[in-house]
Fold this sequence. Notes:
By secondary structure, the protein is an all-alpha fold. It has one domain (2-146). It contains five helices and no strands.
Amino acid sequence: MKIPIKYGLLTALGLIIWVLLAHVLVANPQSLVHTLFSPIFFNVLHFVMIFLGIKALERDRGQRLSFKEALKTGVSIAFVFALTASLFFLAVMLFVGDRWLAVEPGAATTPTRTLMIQAFAGLFLGTLIFGLIYSTVIAFFVAQRRSESRD
Length: 151
């Protein structure tokens, strides 16, 4: 279980570094850095780290993983990432306040409490759903086939 924790935390660290740098270097929350490039970066990072985590587990075991093992590892990485990212943004809300929520759709018209709940639910559940999709795709391509295991 060490690999999912390691790669989930590394993924969250990448997200944290990006968010902090983006907000320090680009103050406008409506800029392309925040609205377009951040989601692209987060998804590419998520995909790559799931792939690297699955390959690391293969190296540790010395053999190709089954589809189920690869999928379970990828989803575990996504869970650790989702939990850590949510905790980071909770800390941001406590220390910085809600001004970073201006990027969220409907931020001007939605009450802050509702916007925070939607943002956290979207972050956590979205990360898990995309993690499941990415893990399935990666597991399909890297997992050992049944015909290979019979040889």
